[in-house]
Amino acid sequence: MSPEKAQAYWKENISTIIKLLVVWFVVSFGCGILFINELNAIEISGVKLGFWFAQQGAIYFFVVLIFVYVNKMSAIDEKYGVSE
Amino acid sequence: MELQSLIYLFVGVSFAVYIGIALWAKAGSTKEFYVAGGGVHPVANGMATAADWMSAASFISLAGIISFKGSFGGAYLMGWTGGYVLLAMLLAPYLRKFGKFTVPDFVGDRYYSDVARTVAVVAVIFISFTYVAGQMRGVGIVFSRFLQVDVNTGVFIGMGIVFFYSVLGGMKGITYTQVAQYVVMIFAYMIPAIFISLQVTDTFIPQMGLFAQTTFEFSDGVKMIPEGTFLLHALDAAVTDLGFQAYTEPGSIKNMFLLTTALMLGTAGLPHVIVRFFTVPTVKDARISAGWALVFIAIMYTTISSVAAFSRINLIKNVQNVEYKAFVNGESKHIDGTTNNGAWFKTWETAGLIAWTDINGDGKIQYAKGAAFDGAKGKPKYDGTNIAEDGHRLTTNPAASKNDGSIQNELYVDRDIMVLANPEIANLPNWVIAFIAAGGLAAALSTAAGLLLVIASAISHDLLGQVIFKDKETGKSTMSEKSELMWARISAVAAIGVAGYLGINPPGFVAQVVAFAFGLAAAAFFPTIILGVFDKRMNKEGAIAGILTGLIFTFAYIIYFVFMGGDKADYLFGIAPSGIGTIGTILHLIVAFVVSRSTPPPPQEIQDLVESIRIPSGVGEAHDH
To answer: Is A34 near chain B, with CB under 8 Å?
Structure first.
């Protein structure tokens, strides 16, 4: 693999990770902690939204994020011909 | 069948399965011993990682902690799951491509330094031992309560079992045993959770029970809370009536933020978790495996919030204002006329994890905010085995009455028993209770084994093989494969001995000690691995300075404030010790960056190594040097 191609691959990898980590931060630290009071104003069946994010919701998002990452990376690996 | 026989049956069968697997999966080479031969299927590895990860603390204590802390407890739930996202994206794939056996391997090779390797070995051993002490206490609790044996005997039995499959089978034995342990653990957790969810909210899926309405009317001691109230409304109303902060009210945002961060970074930096990703065949499998691990963890972790809420409401409903004598003799009734059997209260009182003192002399239990006992963090000091006329255990340090008209708390409940006592409180069938005992043991043993293996390989592979018996010229270990394997087994035996000692003579602050392990893992390993992959310019000077800064700062802060009685008022920016690992991590990053930029860049071959671990293709099997 040429150095230019390796660099392009790495760049795409980094930008994928950054995008996904932004979501990771928003659902946990954002919704579950920093804006918990604001979100708690919204209530569904007795459960305040901020409370739900901190105690359950963020975890569902984490799982989805990892599988989105796996799929994206597989596609990128394929594109650059570095899949195993 | 009688409860006790059922417990023996369930625990006995599960132990027989673990031993059977150990015999089947005996390790024949160092590669099998350290990384299970590198050929574990990603789903099986995910399951084993989940069992390795979910410790006695998760299984036994976490719901209890959240039950009493309420909203703030979300820090633990997010912190102990969110770290897997970091693992999947920032660590696992590159470490797998790197393709060695241990975390000190990576640190030593990437930073071309045996000093760095040795520092890493010491940190690995320290972190893992603090963690394993907590597991052994968990084994002791379960044994003493459910199998009616002495705690020490319990620890010995636990040591024997772990000895068998970790010394014989190494990582291979552990991995396949953990798959079985995960299955036992998850059923043991979910079955009672489903039963209780049905009981409290008439909802089959516990996660949804949080959104449901209560199925009963109960009194919190101040007012009646009618049937059909939303679960969290009922809970908020009850706990605020008793003087506590509302269950859904968040605590300190700052400390919640820092604790969550420290737990996430710690999760991603814990050696016994990282090493799991060396055991799968390819880089892609390492990514997928992190995903599966989180799926298996999430099944339990999303249930915990509901179990926490159910058990708090059940506690209030069952004990508030009941007459002690009638309660423990099974003669008490709920408002709807069903029996409120307090036999469980008596059992846990005998085990020393619950205590009642009749401060107002009305013969009834009152539960509210405030300590029922003076000193010792509100814990009871039992007066030997002496009991009062009504049968409750006497204590020597009951608190004085507040006499201000509010409800005076008379009850001490150890957080650790909420999950274990739950099925009894809810009057579930005996086999469910027996299952819980087997599950608690599976949780403690699986984590202990994973930790012990990491300690053993740090000694035999990293310290002996890569530092002490290293041939200066070839850079290879002078030990033969066979003697390294023997040393790995000897180290495992020694580690089990130390762990057993810690289990029998537990440091009196197990919970803090585990938080300690996380803070140190976050401050020591997480940044150094991330920088090793993502910053090609990072050199050995930067790495060593960073690790030492992170370790020493975090260590000193925790020692000073947790173990030397430092005053809360002196906290740095009001940061609690449990969250200080976050600050340690930041300091590590800054110091490493500054030092590396003012010292020469790493040699070309190291820069090439970094280039190669960034690209998935061409992964070899996990190999020796």
So the answer is: yes
CA end-to-end distance (rounded Å), chain A: 14
Q: B66 to chain A: which residues are within 8 Å by CB?
A: 55
Percentage above 70 pLDDT, chain B:
95
Q: In the prediction, which pLDDT does B588 show?
A: 94
A83 touches chain B (CB under 8 A): yes
Shortest distance, CA B228 to any CA of chain A (angstroms): 11
pTM equals: 0.91
Asked if the Cβ–Cβ distance from B248 to A67 is below 8 Å, we say no
DSSP per-residue codes, B411-465: EEE-TTHHHHHHHHHTT--HHHHHHHHHHHHHHHHHHHHHHHHHHHHIIIIIIII
Give every CB contact of residue B379 below 8 A, 6+ residues apart in sequence: B373, B412
Give the DSSP H or E segment for A44.
strand A43-44
| CA–CA separation, B22 and B173 (whole Å) | 5
Alpha-carbon dihedral sign for residues B273, B278, B281, B286: positive
**B199, burial (CB in 10 Å: exposed 0-12, middle 13-18, buried 19+):** middle
Q: CA-to-CA distance for B192 and B418, rounded, in angstroms?
A: 12
Contacts of A71 (CB under 8 A, 6+ apart): none
A24 and B302: CB-CB below 8 Å? no
State the pLDDT at residue B473.
Answer: 67
The pLDDT, as a whole number, for residue B625 is 43
Identify the weakest region by mean pLDDT among B387-401, B435-449, B503-517: B503-517
Question: Of B225-239, B300-314, B364-378, which range is least confident?
Answer: B364-378
Q: Which of A57, A72, A51, A62 is nearest to B93 (CA)?
A: A72
Chain A residue numbers touching B283 (CB-CB < 8 A): 84
Respond yes or no on whether ipTM tops 0.90: yes
Residue numbers in B near A37 (CB within 8 A): 250
Q: Is A63 on the interface with B (CB under 8 A)?
A: yes
Each residue's pLDDT tens digit, B453-510: 888 888 877 777 777 777 766 667 667 777 778 888 888 888 888 888 877 776 655 5
Query: Which chain B residues have a beta carbon less than 8 Å from that of A21?
Result: 85, 89
* Alpha carbon distances (Å) from B426 to B194, B209, B253: 11, 16, 34
Residues in chain B: 625
Instruction: State whether the Cα torsion A81-A15-B523-B132 is positive or negative.
Output: negative
pLDDT level of residue B576 (50, 70, 90 thresholds)? confident
Q: Which residues pair with B323 in a beta bridge?
A: B364
Contact A42/B at CB under 8 A: no
Decide if A47 touches B, using CB distance below 8 A. yes
- B74 contacts in chain A (CB < 8 Å): 32-33, 51, 53-55, 58
For B84, which of A44, A56, A66 is closest by C-beta distance? A66
